[in-house]
Structures are given as structure tokens and as C-alpha cells.
Design a protein that fits this description.
Length: about 325
């Protein structure tokens, strides 16, 4: 008995099913035939059943095995969970385990999602097991749940929606239009459409500020200050907000310029200091050589020629 096996039921179950040979027999017998045909049971390998991340901290499935498919491509995981009493939401818990196993598979630099087969082992007092084994049946609106989770999810691809259609989308139109054209360098066409939309007063002041801050931070427009000023002239009701954004942009550019100048000055100062230091080292070396030559009785003219020292520098070491 330990922290990971809090009941005798769990302890016995794990003692058997964590043995690869036992698990192989279990899966051979209990996997649905269509899924069993996909599995290469010879590649069965026990994995950690703990899924420790921000969302699933403290969640631990009972047993997780990995194996390869019959074609040798891709992975299948078998997640075996033990239950000694029925739980209405057990299938939802199994789905959370399965999704966590998929995420860990991707975190290990795999490129495709694996099949994860949840299997529930039950031996409770109530028989047969009283709840559906489809997690979708746990929804109050089962029909809509099946439609949503067994089909394609809704997609809003603004790159495929025409601008004429987008401008009819009322309060969300400005967001869709700007994010569709954010990489556009020439904002002339976008400017006219934004003016038309913003005159309808669909956006709040906070949304307007966020919208244009985004345009200036992420967009590729060649002259953002000019773009803002033109909008301000055409939208007098929003002029104060737009000019505030323009001033913030100008202040940011000024601070960045000062910072860049300081960084450049520091770099140039360091380079100049290093250069002066090297020159001083070279001069000291020449002076030392000149002292040696003079001590050997060589005349000043010859020493100056050989070392490149000036007469003034040579006179300095003679005193």
C-alpha cells in the first residue's frame, strides 16, 4: 500500500496489469477486434500514468501502455482505468486522461496525434455497469454534443471572407477587417473601410485604442504616424484618442532613439578605450626596447629609426 494505490482493489489491479505479459493477455482478450487488428502487441511498453501539468496537476490514470500499429507507423496508447464503484462522469475523466496522453506524445516531438484507447475495468456491487461508456452521453444535449464533437469544429477564416461581407458584421467588423489586412503595407483601402465602420460608433474607446495600438505594433504600414493623423482628420469624434495614440508612438520612438544613442555611445566608448589601451601597450613596449638599445650604446637617431619613436618620446625616457 502506498500513496499511488490507496485501496486494496487498486493495489491488486496494478500488481497484475503493470506486468507487460499480463497486460498483453488482457488486451488480446478485451480489445475490440477492429482496434486489436491495428495493434502490434509485441511492442507493448508500460508508460508513466501521471499527467503533471498546470491543468491536470494531481491527476493520475491507473495504467498507460504504448505500442506501435500493425503497419509500424504511428503510436497507439492503451489507457486502463480501474473502478470499484460506478461514476457517472468516468468517461469524461477517461477523456481528460486520453487528451493528456496525446499532449505528452506531442511534447516528445512527435508530429501526429496518437490513438488513445481508454478501457475501464469495473467490478462494483452494481451490475451491470449502470452508465453509458460514451462520454458524449454525459451532456445534457446529447444530439448537439455528438454533432459538435464528432464533426468539424466551427472555423472563422477571415482570409476567405470578402471585405464587403466583413463590413456587415457590425461590432466585430473592425476586428476582423484589421486582422485580415494586418500584413498589408499600403493601408489606403483599409483606411476608407475603417473610417466607414468607425463612424457607426460600434467600437468602445478602449477597443479603438487597442485596435490602433495593434495596427501600429504589428502592422507593416510604411508611415504609421501619417496613417493615424489622416484617420484623426476624417474621424473628428475619435480625434482625441487617435492623437493620443500618435503621441504615444512619437514618445516611444523618441525613447528608443535615446536608448539606441546611449547604447551606441557606450559601445563606441568601449571600443575607443580598448584602442587607446592597445596603443599605450604598444608605446610602452617601444619605450622599453628603446631603453635597452640606449643602454647598449646605440645613438638616438638609430633608436628612433628602429622603434618609430619621436624625438620627444625618446627624450622622455632619457630624463
Amino acid at each position: 500500500m502506498n500513496a499511488s494505490t490507496p485501496t486494496p482493489h487498486d493495489a491488486l489491479f496494478k500488481q497484475f496489469l503493470t506486468r507487460t505479459e499480463t497486460a498483453r493477455d488482457f488486451l488480446q482478450i478485451h480489445l475490440p477486434p477492429a482496434l486489436l487488428a491495428r495493434c502490434d502487441l509485441n511492442t507493448l511498453q508500460l508508460e508513466s500514468g501521471s499527467f503533471i501539468d498546470r491543468e491536470l496537476r494531481g491527476i493520475q490514470s491507473d495504467i498507460l501502455y504504448s505500442l506501435q500499429t500493425d503497419s509500424g507507423e504511428g503510436y497507439i496508447y492503451c489507457l486502463i482505468e480501474h473502478q470499484s464503484s460506478p461514476d457517472r462522469y468516468m468517461t469524461f475523466r477517461l477523456m481528460r486522461y486520453a487528451l493528456a496522453a496525446m499532449q505528452r506524445h506531442l511534447d516528445n516531438h512527435n508530429q501526429a496525434l496518437p490513438l488513445v484507447i481508454p478501457i475501464l475495468f469495473y467490478h462494483g456491487k452494481i451490475s451491470p455497469y449502470p452508465y453509458s461508456m460514451s462520454w458524449l452521453d454525459a451532456f445534457s444535449d446529447v444530439k448537439s454534443a455528438r454533432q459538435l464533437y464528432c464533426g468539424d469544429f466551427p472555423l472563422v477564416d477571415v482570409t476567405m471572407i470578402s471585405d464587403d461581407e466583413i463590413v456587415q458584421h457590425r461590432r466585430v467588423a473592425a476586428l476582423e477587417l484589421v486582422q485580415k489586412h494586418i500584413r498589408q503595407r499600403d493601408m489606403a483601402d483599409l483606411e476608407q473601410q475603417l473610417v466607414t465602420l468607425l463612424r457607426l460608433d460600434y467600437t468602445t474607446p478602449e477597443q479603438l485604442e487597442a485596435l490602433f495600438t495593434y495596427l501600429l505594433q504589428v502592422g507593416d504600414t510604411a508611415n504609421p504616424e501619417r496613417f493615424i493623423c489622416q484617420l484623426a482628420q476624417r474621424l473628428p469624434q475619435h480625434e482625441e484618442i487617435l492623437m493620443t495614440i500618435a503621441q504615444k508612438l512619437e514618445e516611444k520612438a523618441r525613447k528608443e532613439g535615446i536608448l539606441l544613442g546611449e547604447q551606441k555611445g557606450r559601445q563606441e566608448g568601449i571600443l575607443l578605450g580598448e584602442q587607446i589601451g592597445r596603443q599605450a601597450e604598444r608605446l610602452e613596449t617601444k619605450l622599453e626596447i628603446a631603453r635597452t638599445m640606449l643602454s647598449k650604446g646605440m645613438d638616438h637617431s638609430t633608436v628612433m629609426t628602429l622603434t618609430g619613436l619621436t624625438e620627444g618620446e625618446l627624450q622622455h625616457i632619457c630624463h
